[in-house]
């Protein structure tokens, strides 16, 4: 296995700001493998597989932990696909943990329930709509509104 730090681009014209790690290795069958976005892989592992730290220091311990995390992720993904649910993988994982020692049909019932939340969460402002409302208000009201609005803006 060899590891290099590389910068892509033409030094005279365009050059990358950030360095990349280029790793040359071979798989178990002897086929050459080149990886150059290894940081993105570990970022994905941390975000999706929830591997924040390794519990062992040997290569076998690290491999075992990554394999277990990958298997867990795949099982959650298969559960999501087979049950045709729109719940996130995180929601499915939490439900499984909460209902681990309950019958599976209870888990299915909870998973299939519609959300009881009435709030749609924080909504983005529609500035175009606010502007249109402001224009209508200006057109419909007298100049008193303009004076008041101007004062409000100046106070901010």
Structure report:
The protein is mainly α and 156 residues long. It has 3 domains: 1-36, no CATH class; 52-113, no CATH class; 126-156, no CATH class. It contains 6 helices and 3 strands, in the order E-E-E-H-H-H-H-H-H. The protein has helices at residues 38-48, 59-82, 89-98, 104-112, 127-140, 143-155; strands at residues 2-6, 20-26, 32-35. The chain has a 3-stranded antiparallel sheet with strand order 1-2-3, with no helix packed on it. The longest helix is centred in the middle third of the chain and has 24 residues, at 59-82.
The portion of residues assigned to helices is 40-55%
Number of domains: 3
Q: Could you give the count of β-strands?
A: 3
By secondary-structure content and strand pairing, the structural class works out as mainly alpha
Largest sheet: 3 strands, antiparallel
Our count of helices gives: 6
Question: What's a concise summary of this model?
Answer:
The protein has 156 residues and is mainly alpha-helical. The chain contains six helices and three strands.
